[in-house]
Design brief:
Elements lengths: L1 E7 L4 E7 L5 E5 L5 H11 L2 E6 L5 H4 L2 H8 L3 E3 L4 H4 L2 H7 L12 E2 L5 E4 L2 E7 L8 E5 L4 E5 L2 E2 L2 E2 L9 H12 L7 E4 L5 E2 H7 L10
Parallel strand pairs: 3-4, 4-5, 5-6, 10-13
Antiparallel strand pairs: 1-2, 2-3, 7-8, 8-9, 9-10, 11-12, 13-14
This protein binds zinc ion (ZN) (2 copies).
Length: 213
């Protein structure tokens, strides 16, 4: 497996380039900003980018989608419930004092428990709402990794005060869909450093005891 992480833009968002040497095919997950830098990193991996995959459609995760979609002429995939929010990203950006370029379009919807083939890699989608509508995590069982988007972070969880956010739903998503993965699973989040499922189970203050938050 090839896995590259780039932290991009004013929100320090983690974009991932994932693929496999055997097929030479790859995907970009959550290209949030700095399209040129992401394209350069993709070029260095020597992967042919064939998909752009979104965990959710907050402004900090989609800023470079339109530009990279044009560059690679590849489809953009996301959950259907994440699509309405995409139309609001210019407003989201404006409220944060930022400018947003071209609003990307989604070409194909990803269902829960769908297996996306990226070359020889299999990414299984895990429907994990609560932080944002239609939020998905992606589990690569063969490699023991999960791309957790903004659901689960090292020592924290996603914020729930944005439209469509719900604390109870988020904690349920994390408990029922992520914490059930093997303890040694490496977690690659949408912000901050990587962690493991076991570490978060043991130490994440938002997930201790039986309480919700
Ligand atoms: Zn988010
Ligand atoms: Zn984010």
């Amino acid at each position: 497996m090839i896995l590259e992480m780039l932290t991009v833009g004013p929100f320090q968002e983690n974009c991932y380039i994932i693929g496999d040497e055997g097929s030479g095919l790859g995907a970009i997950i959550d290209p949030g900003d700095e399209a040129a830098r992401i394209a350069l990193a993709a070029e260095r991996t020597e992967l042919d980018v064939v998909q752009i995959i979104l965990t959710h459609t907050h402004v900090d995760h989609v800023g470079a989608v339109a530009q990279l979609k044009e560059e690679y002429a590849c489809p953009v995939l996301a959950h259907a419930e994440a699509e309405p929010m995409l139309k609001q990203v210019p407003v989201q950006a404006m409220m944060m004092g930022l400018k947003f370029g071209q609003v990307p379009t989604i070409d194909r919807h990803i269902e829960d428990e769908e297996v996306l083939e990226v070359g020889g890699l299999q990414l299984r989608s895990l429907y994990t709402p609560g932080h944002a509508p239609g939020h998905l995590a992606f589990y690569v069982e063969d490699e023991g990794i999960v791309i957790s988007g903004d659901a689960l972070f090292a020592g924290s969880v996603g914020r729930v005060d944005l439209p469509g956010g719900n604390a109870e739903v988020l904690i349920k998503s994390i408990r029922e869909r992520l914490l059930i993965l093997p303890d040694e699973t490496r977690v690659y989040p949408g912000h901050g450093p990587e962690t493991t499922i076991g570490d978060e189970k043991a130490h994440n203050p938002f997930l201790q005891g039986g309480g919700l938050l």
